[in-house]
Amino acid sequence: MAGKARARATADRLFAAFVAAGALPVEADILQPAEVLLDLYGEDIRARAYVTSDPLRGEMMLRPDFTVPVVQMHMAHGAEPARYAYQGEVFRKQEHLSERKSEFFQVGFELFARENPSDADAEVFALFADLLSPLSLRAATGDIGLLLAAVRGLKTLESRKAALLRHIWRPRRFTQLLERFGGRSPVPASRQALLAAQGTRPAPAPLVGLRSEAEITARLAALAEDAAAPPVSAEEVAFLEDLLNLSAPSVMALAHLRDLARAMPHLAPAVDRMEARLDALAARGVAVDSLAFEASHGRTTLEYYDGFVFSFHAADPALPPVASGGRYDALTAVLGAGRSIPAVGGVIRPGLVADLEDTA
Question: What pTM value is reported for the model?
């Protein structure tokens, strides 16, 4: 594995290439306020980040990535459009003993632009592909926007769609919810009991926890409504599963998505965006006929991607992605206090680049 000096030297070289592409160099503190990341991702982020307590600043995290602080900086002070480059160490807990490091370098590029998001997606991907071309990596792409559109178009309760949208990035939980909402698995006994108890007045009991009586009543009503609602149709479940399992070269995937959109019209705008992106990629010299597309790609990364996603992989499947990135328009709205701007970016792991260069 490349030592820190080798990884840092490779990061410097990649960083210089991003600056040459018009990016403004920026930095981010190693210690980041935990509150922002917890608000974005909930308590799940604790399993992946190192959390500490500061007597003055409260809970803090060792920087798990750069995108969130760079977006915060841009939304507070940035001009539009803007390109940023950064480099430094990030810190991620590992669940098992392996070759994956808990502390490693990242170098990244972020593009904020209101005009022509498809061309912005293509610019970032083509820049990464060009920088990494000597390594002969396998590129993979996807589009979280297609999955979000498919869920939002389901003919079911808004609460069910909200639950599925919340768990897009947790495939196992998403599948469990889809099985239940589609009537393939039974309604939990606790919710069946709620249906049976509707209209009866419960015995007085002390309040426990932080929820008010009104909040508890509203939650019970929502659970009862869910238990009584008809299942998502078998046809819609089948279409959604077809989408989730789609894996093909991009041009073939686009044709299949056009077929799906005839039955799921709410997919059409996202499919149109994909077609525009493929045209922009082709215009930049990317061989889209052979570019891999996986509709579920990106579902296990940090949860801010909501459109085009991509990654570059070495031949060894045990290695993490050498580079990854995507579009995160919604994140700018969350961190922008009422303002937003379309944004796309990505990161490269220079330590892995150095290792692969050494073995080439």
Answer: 0.88
